[in-house]
Amino acid sequence: MKGIAWITAFCFLLAIPSGWSQDPENPSLSWGPSYRAEGNTTLEKVVGFTPEDIYFLRVKHSGAFSNRDKIYMERYSRDLKLKHSEEIVLQYDKTDVTLEDVLFLHNQLYLLTSYANQSHEKVYLFLQKLSDRQMRPTGEAKKIVEGPLTRNSIGRTFDFQLSADSSHLLVYHQIPTASKEPERFALHVFDQDMALEWEREVMLPYPDEQFSIREYRIDETGSVYLMGAVIEPGQRNRSLPAHYLVLEYRPGDLAPVEWKIGLEDKFITELTFRIAKNGDLICSGFYSERDAQSAKGICYFRLDAATRRVVTQTWQPFEFEFRAEELSNRGRQRAFEAEAEGNERRSAELYGYNLDELVLRTDGGALLVAEQFYVEERFNRYWDGTLHVTYLYHYNDLIVVNIQPSGTIEWTVRIPKQQVSIDDGGYFSSYSMATVRDRLYFLYNDNSRNFDPKTREGQLYSFNGSQAVIALAEVRKDGAFSVSPLALSEGASIMARPKIGRQIGGRLLLIVGEWGRNLRLGNVVFPAR
CA 226 to CA 230: how far, in whole Å? Predict the structure, then answer.
């Protein structure tokens, strides 16, 4: 594929060494037929699925001779055969429009596009249904949102968020404001049939430079929640928020409900939240004693839906050995001595972990999933003085933290993983996740030498093209975990793209494999234990 440079290339990918066989008691992977995709196109996402079909969005990005992307809807059968591919022309009334998203709600495909009208200083959002078989636009495109044009109204303008039960859709976009004024946004809430339920403009309680929105969600009743990080005036370290604020907007209320979230003398570096079935908000993340890129432990908050109060607020450091595992022997000794002396600035902390998932348990606890990710820049100056920058994308270890309803850590797990790629955004890196009963599964590309006792010898080899294998990590409810190569039912000269994998059944994970223009879909089937 153009633009993808791996540290080592030219290989038979996903080859399983001899002696590795399938076990019917364990998860298994089977591939569908191979297809030849159109050049310079990528599968962007799984749009939706039914018991018979799986819908994908494919995008062909504009090139030197075109300034307009092309999009295709593709329908595959459950046995992973391509049934139909349909190009959708992004035009409204003979005018080019921008793709915002394609949604699948209650067995209906919806195409969402936008148009920035410079002369009227307006931006419009259009909705159009797509047929389920041919995936062609049906009927006229309907304007469902109109807003003022902003300086950022180039490309995609709107954000979308579905409720957990897909009964409500939030459409969210920015409204222009003067310099140093609080940001303003418009919220539009639609029901499952895309009928407007309510809408309003909101003004954040802080100026733009003091408040950064981190996340927004919508619940089953149509209430909207925004979570942002607050920087106080005069704060010395402006990369670390003083605290977080959650705002709840409900139809008919004149003002939002506010929750302030923070830890005294500690920095919350990462925070996310989910809405429990009883309406409570569960917030969890990492805290640090020193900087914005580190994590010493987890914090946990429960926000009561009935009283609108924070009823649980806890924090707990990770065990020293867990935090110091990646340090050298000398570094571990220095960190141990620093902690014994109470020197928090030199204590051991995890580095560069991004929160990805917060899975709520039925007993009120939660599972937190994070991945180590960072970008390394390398500068090379050529003989003529030209400076070239190379970007290395590192997707490394996964960690899973099991949090009890009280907010204390029950166990932590580190899944060793090392993925490095060059100038590609980590196209084949990261992972897919599946929840099967009381177990978590993580699928990712790995180096086959990590599973060979003759070559590993305690060393973790970085994933690259020449020794690629799909690995599957299983984490059980007691914190025990195992990692093994996934046996293939047949060879496949492609590379898995874990980022766009999706669980499409209680025991079924759909993955995509690509290399160049070759494409195959695969099913990972998990056993019923």
Answer: 13
User: CA-to-CA distance for 182 and 187, rounded, in angstroms?
Assistant: 16
**How far is the C-alpha of 19 from the C-alpha of 505, rounded, in Å?**
30
442/435 Cα distance (integer angstroms): 9
3-state secondary structure 118-177: CCCCEEEEEEEEECCCCCCEEEEEEEEEEEECCCCCCCCCCEEEECCCCCEEEEEEEECC
* Residue in 457, 432, 430 with CA at minimum distance from that of residue 443: 432
Q: Which amino acid is at 72?
A: Y
Cα–Cα distance measured from residue 308 to residue 247, given in angstroms and rounded to the nearest whole number: 11
Range picked from 143-152, 311-320, 444-453, 484-493 for highest mean pLDDT: 311-320
The number of helix segments (H) and strand segments (E) in the chain equals: 2, 39
Beta bridge partners of 36: 518
Q: How many CA atoms lie within 13 A of 320 on its CB side?
A: 13
Of 423, 363, 358, nearest to 388 by C-alpha is 423
Per the DSSP assignment, residues forming a β-bridge with 271 are 285
How far apart CA 325 and CA 322 sit, in angstroms, is: 5
Cβ count within 10 A of residue 260: 10
Whether the CB-CB separation of 421 and 451 falls below 8 Å is answered with: no
Please state which of the ranges 8-12, 143-147, 360-364 shows the lowest mean pLDDT.
Answer: 8-12
Q: Estimate the share of the chain in helix, then strand, then coil, as percent rounded to the nearest 5.
A: 5, 55, 40
CB-CB contact of 509 with 523 (8 Å)? yes
Q: Is residue 187 a contact partner of residue 251, using CB atoms and an 8 Å limit? A: no
Using alpha carbons only, what angle is made at residue 55 by residues 49 and 57, rounded to the nearest 5 degrees?
Answer: 140
On whether the CB atoms of residues 415 and 481 are closer than 8 A, the answer is yes
* 354, 370 contact by CB (below 8 A): yes
Sorted by where each begins, the domain ranges of the chain are 41-148
DSSP-derived secondary structure for 210-241: GEEEEEEEE-TTS-EEEEEEE--TT-S-TTS-
> pLDDT band at 17, cuts 50/70/90?
very low
The helix (run of H) or strand (run of E) holding residue 257 is strand 257-261
Tell whether the torsion through CA atoms of 34, 38, 44 and 47 is positive or negative: negative
DSSP state for residue 464 in the 8-state scheme? -
Query: How confident is the model over 300-325, as pLDDT tens digits?
Result: 999 998 888 899 999 999 999 999 88
Give the single-character DSSP code of 333: H
Phi, psi (rounded to 5 degrees) for 448: -60, -25
Q: What is the pLDDT of residues 79-119, one digit of tens each?
A: 999 999 999 999 888 888 999 999 999 999 999 999 988 88
C-beta separation of 56 from 74 below 8 A: yes
Residue 75, Ramachandran bin (φ over 0: left; ψ between -120 and 50: alpha; else beta): beta
Question: Which residues are paired to 373 by β-bridges?
Answer: 395
Length of the chain (residues): 529
Name the residue among 462, 469, 325 with its Cα closest to residue 395.
462
